[in-house]
Amino acid sequence: MIKVMKKNQLISLAILAMKYSVYQILIITLFTCAASAEIVSAQGVLDKKISLKADQQEIKTVIARLEELADVKFVYSAKSISSGRKVSVNAVRQKLGDVLKTYLKPYDVEYKIIKDRILLYSTQNDDKDRIVPNPFITAAEEIVSGKVTDSKGNPLPGVTVVIKGTTKGITTDENGSYSLKVNNTGSYTVNFSFIGYISKEIPAENNGSNKIINITLSEDALQLEGVVVTGGGNPKKKLESSVAITSISNKDITARAPLNSTDLLKAIPGLTVESTGGDGPGNVWVRGFPQQGGYIFLGIQEDGLPLLPTGFNTNPSIDQYYKTDLTIQNIEAIRGGNASILQANTPGAVINNISYSGADKAYGQFKFTTGLSQGLYRADANTGGKISDHVKFNIGGFYRTDKGVVDPGYSPANRGGQIKGNMTFNFDNGKGFVRVFGKYLNDRVQFLLTSYYPYDGTGKPTKYGSYDMVSQSISPINTQWNYTDPAGTAHSFDLADGIHTKLGSGGFQFNYLTDGGWQIVNNFRYQNTHTASNYSTPNGIAARSTATTYYYLDGSVAPASASNQIITAASNAQLNKDQQIVDYLDFKKQVKNHSLALGLGIHQYNRDDLRYAFRTQTEYKENPQILVLAAGAPGRTPQTKTTVIGDTRTLSAYGTDEIKISESFRLDIGARIDNQHVEGRRPFYAFNADGSPNYTAASSPTIAGYTDYNITATNWAASIGTNYKIASTSSMFARITRAYNAPNIGDYNATAYNPDNIKKRPVYLAELGYKYAKNRLAIFASGSYSAIKNASLAINVPTTSSGLQALIAFGSTRTWSAEYEISYKILNPLSLRLTGTIQDSKYTDYTASTRTNSAVLAQLGDKVYSFTGNRTERVPVFNTELSASYDYKKANIFLSANYVGSRFTSPSDSYKLPVYVVMRGGAGYNFTKQIAARFWVDNLTNARVLTEGDVRGDQFRDFSAIPTGTLMIGRTLLQRTFWASLAYSF
């Protein structure tokens, strides 16, 4: 029997090795790079040499350190092995197997290998149980046995089975089977637990007869029993943390099939997400904080390092710096107070995209996707494995081309991709590793902006003649133009280039454990980005006079009719460049009941932007042409030239301490201080009579000169949180925070810069939450309060004579909100998930004066607008999503409905947009374990509703006086689209 088993293992290993070679050839062809690997059995991990020094540390703490050093996963029951007991370890370059025997065996803890995990179990006899039997009762003895499977009926090896309240336990074998002797008298409870699944408890009665208990474990959709890795401190279970956090697994990403990076954020409570710009810039509001768009209060990270300093609007847009593909293993979204400790100037939330980084076994996936309704062709690939005992790698990326959800009149609308990889070198002494990584992104996307529709007060887009803003584009098909600015610089622009991002980055992570128990982690990245942004923004519309002759650019006469309209728009051409160096140096150590983490950071952000805006007039129809008043006249008139030239250096110091007061109660405190130094050149456009710069002059095509500036500011954040573990399956947490929102280089660069307007912007947050995971149910729920003072709220105003101008304003808000995530498996194949946010966000102080800009003053007159007491614009009171997933044998069906409540288009609260529901659905089928197909549809019911109005003008309008049928600006949900994919995994 043993010989047969060994023979089968050798055959399987040989097949795996041959299969891996085939995949390696495919990767060489796809990525034109070589990598080799050898497969070793799981037993080989016991031969890894490690060094570890621990003085009277809990067994579970030692196990966690061994997991990091040996890059292996342990599975055990904390009660069964009494993991709270303390042990001292002094191992120097010892094999992992010897360490386990030397330091754990004396505590009656043994191990065995099952697949790629090490199972720890207790060898204590019945009389060593910590529960003392009653001497007057004779204990009946029985055997509990059975099998543990997942929702699809697959066996689950490594599941911990424990008699609750005792140290009696065992783990399931390769077939998911277990057998456990019970001598408890009367009733008892059997607890089943496994990483990635919700624990389950089964009550039983000891009557002296053997029992068979077969159970099915449900996946932990909220991953409450998973470990948080983002940020400082030692990794801990989400159930034990005092943080509001949402995890999005690779499986979740596959099920949701996001159309773009922003779209995926809709799965996170507390965020209000608009992704109707297509693959172009998206907008994300966090807990009601006010903004006109972009990612002002949200920090985006890739493997723990920020991709862009937090605080920018749509240009540059952070969602163009990262793309979601198969290289992403998991996403952690940390909301609320703790985010302000993790990243500078980030009071709202931190989204950390965590990449695959290799493993002992070879793995990979190739996926081909087609957009059945928009001509999409996309290829994704990712693979990783082991090159040697000390070297692991991962490499992947994507390439795609498509016509766009809305056809802009040229093709392709979106084209490009990225390649991304890392390689990990483990030290021979087993005390750490060095990981090098790099990424090259070259991607061009269509930016869907606002269009015109006949106003009827319903907030829904209606057609104008044959034009439908939902499915048609008013971006001119005369996409190319040349321009030589007054400084003599010649440019060629093309709207067909869209937002074209070229990004290259590289860096390393150093992770080392000293003999003194300090873990040192240094994470460094250099990044260079060039973005050419070309897009058309409508600014006005008027009926065409039949008495005026218009010409096309080819000199022919443009035909006219009584219903014709002419759109005045801005063709925007921007050349953005930035270079970034970011480095985080962290020190972590467990000192008795304290988990200490101290860190230093630097983020150097050098930016050089050149931006032009040109005035155009076009027809009002799908794919219009540019109109001119004289044959041969240029189609685009230069309106403004602006620059953002400057460097920002942020030096940071931060620290956290998680204090384990008892087994149930934890307290954690954190603080951060950031010193921001900004220097650059601020443009101005005219001189006063005395020859001094006129900083109130409106922007024009000619920059009169520059003013050098050099500013330093220091801000701080502090947070304190607590977690109380009510039981092994539930906990409560609370947190209070004082954070900040700092000005960015755009604020300092403004022509009308006034130092009196750069006020301190403190942020105050408080939250109270509950977490629960047991049997088929997982719950996260929290209530929070958020407030910000003096937020920068510059309002863009279209002027007749000077184009788009900024009206400087500041505002303060407060928000009460409730967030929830609920996962429930009704039946083995059917799972439900409900997520959402209820929030009440209002301005407590907000006024804007036209005197801050002379061009706006000339157009609107001398006025002061007050929005105090109004609701924050574009933030719904109620935003929730209900999704269902049904697994049956090899098939899967996914369906979700996202309800978005009413919201106002502007802070004047003058125009309310209606409630809407957008649905998406998908179906997948696994032909084999390796081959799977999937079909899905976005906006299943083809809902038609506005997602925003005229953000530049609605606050200055009285909608009660606007006649029905008046052409207004708005942006809508993307129309229904169909997609299909075929994936091959190994």
From TrEMBL:
Domain TonB-dependent receptor-like beta-barrel per the UniProt entry, residue ranges: 449-940
Keyword annotations of the record: Cell outer membrane, Ion transport, Iron, Iron transport, Membrane, Receptor, Signal, TonB box, Transmembrane, Transmembrane beta strand, Transport
Keyword Signal: yes
Record-level Gene Ontology MF annotations: siderophore uptake transmembrane transporter activity
Subcellular location: Cell outer membrane
Keyword flag Ion transport: yes
Bilayer topology annotation: Multi-pass membrane protein
Any one of the GO CC terms: cell outer membrane
Residue span, TonB-dependent receptor plug domain: 238-350
Pfam families xrefs: CarbopepD_reg_2, Plug, TonB_dep_Rec_b-barrel
Gene3D superfamilies: Carboxypeptidase-like, regulatory domain, TonB-dependent receptor, beta-barrel domain, TonB-dependent receptor, plug domain
Family affiliation: Belongs to the TonB-dependent receptor family.
Entries under PANTHER family matching the protein: CATECHOLATE SIDEROPHORE RECEPTOR FIU, FERRICHROME IRON RECEPTOR-RELATED
Name assigned to this protein: Outer membrane receptor protein involved in Fe transport
Organism: Pedobacter duraquae
Taxonomic lineage of the native organism: Bacteria, Pseudomonadati, Bacteroidota, Sphingobacteriia, Sphingobacteriales
